[in-house]
Amino acid sequence: EARSILLLTHQNPDIDGLSCMLAFTLLFPEKAPLPLVEEIPSNASFLHGFSRLKLTEEIKDLISPDLVILFDASCERRISEKLRAKVKDPKLVLVFDHHQREDCAELFGAKTYFIINPEEASTSILFYRFLKEAGFSLTPEIAENLLAGIYYDTGSFRYENVKGDIFQVVQELVTLGARPSYVAQALYENFPLSQVKALRIVLNRLRLLNGGKIALSFLTFEDLQDLGGERAINDLASFLRSIQGVKYGALVKEVEKGRIKVSLRSKAPWEILPLAKEYGGGGHRYACGFQVKRESLEEFLKDFEEKLVRLP
Amino acid sequence: EARSILLLTHQNPDIDGLSCMLAFTLLFPEKAPLPLVEEIPSNASFLHGFSRLKLTEEIKDLISPDLVILFDASCERRISEKLRAKVKDPKLVLVFDHHQREDCAELFGAKTYFIINPEEASTSILFYRFLKEAGFSLTPEIAENLLAGIYYDTGSFRYENVKGDIFQVVQELVTLGARPSYVAQALYENFPLSQVKALRIVLNRLRLLNGGKIALSFLTFEDLQDLGGERAINDLASFLRSIQGVKYGALVKEVEKGRIKVSLRSKAPWEILPLAKEYGGGGHRYACGFQVKRESLEEFLKDFEEKLVRLP
Hints:
The structure is a homodimer. Chain A is of the alpha/beta class. The first copy, chain A, has 2 domains: 5-188, inorganic pyrophosphatase (n-terminal core) (Alpha-Beta Complex); 193-308, Diaminopimelate Epimerase, Chain A, domain 1 (Roll), CATH 3.10.310.30. Helix content of chain A is 33%, strand content 20%. Chain A contains 11 helices and 12 strands. In chain A, helix 1 packs antiparallel against helix 4 (140-154). Chain A is globular and about 60 Å long. Chains A, B: Residues 231-308 form the DHHA1 domain. Chains A, B: Residues 5-150 form the DDH domain. Chains A, B: GO terms for molecular function: nucleic acid binding. Chains A, B: InterPro entries: DDH_dom, DHH_sf, DHHA1_dom, Oligoribo/pAp-PDE_c-di-AMP_PDE.
């Protein structure tokens, strides 16, 4: 099956990547590009054109597109394997991304053009500027998708990436017909019940160390099974950090019997990344994590707590 | 004690009113106006000029100012009694407010000018436009205070009042030197421990009615005493509404033995105001409340639940 334009985003697709894919798709109501994903997150169903997303299992043959456009990632290894396996010999690849440039020179063995700016808060902003410069006229639906990407990647304008002329861009999208409170409600008034239950457990287990400077909580393997898996507990580590007086937040998750995953968050200027690195993990200075293999969650918690209380 | 300019806001002062008072104060570094409050909320300490706020008990004599400026309210009855009692015969009163115009023709018995626009999302925006038109040059500190008022009154750009050219105004404030993520962190990464405890109780008592369309929880008088009073539980009703599938959220608080206060929230287009009115309460269509006198919290909950489950 040959499609002329194939749209991709990274694995575990999020609102920013999907919003760009769908915005682009909506530019071509007739001969539509193919927005292909390996899974569809439930919080994305409010995006316009959502039903056009195609899952890999719906595509039987290999795809040989004229053009692949990859949003919100700049390396093949960021794309799920299942999805990568579907793509054969594209003629050209175009990348739109706002993350730090990676070491990939070309993707899928094809000539690749990179449009990357790590100064932008989201790929939606970067892509909006491109569409605007290229003279496309954007419908309210397209503008609203792009706005959703901005809300998502800035945590509703709360993260450190909110700078420059971001609000100017948002104003332009609103003028085009995007509805801020609609997007915000879809993203933030839509707390899955599994998250509510996870939050209840996390709060009931909450421990404040070093006079309230460290917030620690955990979920056992049994908790995660009841909740429906790790996905159910998206971003509760950030909640721990948001408690008054807390500098460092840590959420420990026994994702499998014998495998423990830890999400770490800190308030600037206190960096938590060094702790993640001690355990072989990585990420951003104030938001990172690591995984370890340990048979006993209890023992890990004991060791980990000793490390935590030594933080500056 | 005669002061030429006295700055006031409504009782239970919030970030929007305080940000305007302090922004105005910072315009006059030498002969400062007097920003008078009956209490100082703890989440306001990041505002620039915060230490200039004066409490009523620090002022011994009556104040006879040339000018009173009231922010974020347009009627004398919105000001705390203790504070009102300090003010004697001002020459002139000026009101800046973004709420619906009330029935007061003049305040403190003086000629009063009203600058009111209920279309604006916050008084800070309204006041910013005024300062800009008047040609004041605003420092980064003043711009940041005004930005804080906008973040606060829009719930970080999530409420329905986010419309018009609000992002244009925000961009102007950022250009003047206001730091969005600093403000957001001060407001939203600062969850008081009492709130965390209240949230834990509310989650442990959470009941989902009508197949998850109604979220109900409650706090007893004893809970509230432990938590440090009603103030500790600011806005948990909105949290109930934010659960996926929930149309109506209700938080019942036994604020005194025999007195029950209920906060109601709904997702548009489902209005919850009619229920508040049934109990003699009021507010907005999607955010309102009421109070009743009842000896037994349990019996009230039983009655109230019957009313709740009949909601459309």
